[in-house]
UniProtKB/TrEMBL annotation:
Pfam families the UniProt entry points to: GGACT
SUPFAM superfamilies per record: Gamma-glutamyl cyclotransferase-like (SSF110857)
Domain called Gamma-glutamylcyclotransferase AIG2-like: residue spans: 9-136
Name used for this protein in its record: Gamma-glutamylcyclotransferase
Length: 140
């Protein structure tokens, strides 16, 4: 298996700064955090966390770059948290590359965890979309 490239991650839900999984998974392991958006995706409600799905919208979040010495550790922790196994057939999320737009301009290639295809189909059919694309500003 070819190793994954060392890309930063786009986080949009419970991994965003100030959220509970950020504190447990990323705090002290990140070299850079930049507010950003992810065009070409929409956000759906999940059971306490959101799902990004390819679509005609934009998701609000942040680009996080793990500290170089902690990259492998962060990658393993995020894959585990997101229920992702490379090449797995029962993944809840898939880790894919996408182009984020950091605040201030430009684009950046990132890893992002999106709903796996079977779940994405269900969400498109009967899921609850978050119209703003921002997990933190949804109606609670």
């Amino acid at each position: 298996m070819t190793p994954s490239p060392r890309l930063p991650f786009f986080v949009y839900g419970t991994l965003r700064p100030g959220e509970h999984h950020h504190a447990r998974t990323l705090a002290g392991r990140v070299a850079r955090t930049t507010p950003a958006t992810l065009p070409g995706f929409v956000l759906y409600e999940g059971p306490g966390y959101p799902y990004a799905v390819a679509g005609d919208g934009e998701v609000t979040g942040a680009v996080i770059e793990p500290a170089a010495a902690r990259y492998a550790e962060v990658l393993r922790a995020l894959d585990t948290l997101e229920g992702y196994t490379p090449g797995g057939t029962a993944n809840l999320y898939e880790r894919v590359t996408a182009e984020a737009r950091p605040v201030g301009g430009g684009t950046e290639t990132v890893w992002v965890y999106v709903a796996a295809p079977p779940l994405a189909r269900r969400l498109r059919g009967r899921g609850t979309r978050i119209p703003s694309g921002d997990w933190l500003s949804r109606a609670r």
